[in-house]
Amino acid sequence: MTDRLARSARQQRARLRDVAEAAGTSTKTASRVINGDDRVAAETRARVEQAVLDLGYRPDPLARSLRRGLDETIGVVVDEVGDPFFASVIGEIERMAIDRDVSVIIASTRRREERERIVLDGLYQRRVAGLIIASISDNHAYLRHSSCPLVFIDRAAEDLAADAVVVDDRGGARMAVEHLLRHGHRRIAYIGDRLSTATARHRLLGYRDALDGAGIAADDALVAEVEPADGDAGVAAEELLRLPAPPTAIFSANTRCSLGTLPTLHRLRRTDLGFVSFGDFAMADTLTPAITIVDHSPEAIGRLAAERLFSRLAGDEPPVETIFAPLRIVARGSGELAPDRPRP
Amino acid sequence: MTDRLARSARQQRARLRDVAEAAGTSTKTASRVINGDDRVAAETRARVEQAVLDLGYRPDPLARSLRRGLDETIGVVVDEVGDPFFASVIGEIERMAIDRDVSVIIASTRRREERERIVLDGLYQRRVAGLIIASISDNHAYLRHSSCPLVFIDRAAEDLAADAVVVDDRGGARMAVEHLLRHGHRRIAYIGDRLSTATARHRLLGYRDALDGAGIAADDALVAEVEPADGDAGVAAEELLRLPAPPTAIFSANTRCSLGTLPTLHRLRRTDLGFVSFGDFAMADTLTPAITIVDHSPEAIGRLAAERLFSRLAGDEPPVETIFAPLRIVARGSGELAPDRPRP
DNA sequence: GCAGACGAGGTAATCGATGTCACAGCGGTG
DNA sequence: CACCGCTGTGACATCGATTACCTCGTCTGC
């Protein structure tokens, strides 16, 4: 009674101690019941459970994490939360986390290595149970002794044995460019992310693979490396079209580049160009012409990564693996335009 | 020395105790230095600061939160992380949080009231310092005694005196519909979110205001209330067009409805319809015709909400206020089509 | 009949930091 | 000279839960 008053005076939740007192046991026994330890007499267990219900007790996650050294939280580190690709990935991860009563802390690197360190450090300090990381760094030495499972997404860590969920960047890029080649294009430009990220490098290799396969000499003037966050992709497209021997088709190596390039092409009325985008985006199938894509479903990546992480958190120890998310080409129009098509 | 070995054997970070020992003081004094308490002799302070640097000490956020009853974390609750509107809002909030060394926990309600309770409860248990909420519930009684500052976004809490950053839903909708009226449309359809959310109700009111102002009788057959997460918006559009007296223009009351409706209109080759979207989206200006919008910049909302929250966290106590994010119409083509335009 | 296993439960230390309170020294004051 | 108040400091309790270790019966096997 007094106790209940004390609680209400404090305006606070019930603590384990309150439960124990209400059930007439020690906190240890109450803790056993709550954590499903079976060395508790059925009758005692029942009393504790009743007290939990009566008091609406729920363990304090902070105190629990402090003691256990582990939090019921996973961290997700991406380039930028607002990026549609990552927004979808995160959405899917969160969906899976919800089912497991795990919270998700999001942090973005803004594509800067030093920030990557900082945010990871912060997440470790919070004792996250696991991490899903789209790393932009090439050096993961500082993660080697990670105290929690890691799953890399979008880009595998080449210097670290850790799970990763990626797409076959090289193969996908090759697929995209071969598609354009099949439709008769011979001068195909590449617009992609800075080559400081491994993803970009692989996609550029795939682009070259395809050209090699068709016996076409690579022309560096057709390769544009841009910062996709800015409006650079559109500018790059404009420059490509001003070349003495301009391309008849463009392969855009990621979604943000596509979002940057297409408004420019439309403004210049150059929708006669062949175009394939690595990565889908809203309205891609509603533009005129609709945009042919190589699709690496962000939801699938999020799901696979989360599944892997939760499986490790549950104690499974499958061998470290790089999982390739399925990849396919979706022909919608822009990739099937012949090179000699008249300009609109 | 022994201590340093012990630390490295533990493979762990330095604790306050390690700092205190290294500086030859008590933990309390070390704590004083770290928290900027000025009742410490300059020389002692210097020793502690040196120890902090030597050991690379950083306080454990968990332990600190437990003791202080307050975490350096803010919670953000939205419908759905993957929603482009909220993704941008979150991106902006996070950007501001970074500057203040505050972490952000994201939770989504999936538009279900019971989940809203659950996630908020979870965030409170984590002792978040503040909350930014896009609430879907109409009943906020359980938030009345919130232990931390709240800022509502997108939808104000009508039953609670709390800060909110919203757009003038009614005025914006009216603006959009008046735009279509000015271009000669008389039968204008409304496609919007379920009326269970206040936002949707206000936008529908604005739509009616505009029609009233033009002396046009409202026709309920032209009003479609859909679940924007599904493909319902497209279906609704199709049904509207099959009416005996179909609309010549559509006002889409939110981004997701636009993303659902437009592919359908394009598929049906009904791009002759007038169209205004409440909310911008990628490629809106690249479609043919480009989409006229009423823009409620998600970044602005995120920034204003975060500014407000951080100002309260810093101890400011401005009067509770509902802030209206700026709203403007961006004419791009689809809203300026005359009703008698031939179909493509 | 007794050693040891086992079941049920409790006590106290611990996680890492901070709040409370007491205390030693010192200069000033009546 | 005794007392006051201030400064700088530390011992110890505390936040809420978990873990290491111990106790006390009772049951089993020899």
Automatic annotation (TrEMBL), chains A, B:
InterPro entries named among the record's database cross-references: HTH_LacI (IPR000843), LacI/GalR-like_sensor (IPR046335), Lambda_DNA-bd_dom_sf (IPR010982), Peripla_BP_I (IPR028082)
Keywords of this entry: DNA-binding, Transcription, Transcription regulation
DNA-binding found in the keyword field: yes
Domain of life: Bacteria
CDD domains: HTH_LacI, PBP1_LacI_sugar_binding-like
One Pfam family in the UniProt entry: LacI
Domain HTH lacI-type: 14-68
PANTHER family from the UniProt entry: HTH-TYPE TRANSCRIPTIONAL REGULATOR GALS, LACI-RELATED TRANSCRIPTIONAL REPRESSOR
Name the UniProt record assigns to this protein: LacI family transcriptional regulator
Lineage, highest ranks first: Bacteria, Bacillati, Actinomycetota, Actinomycetes, Micromonosporales
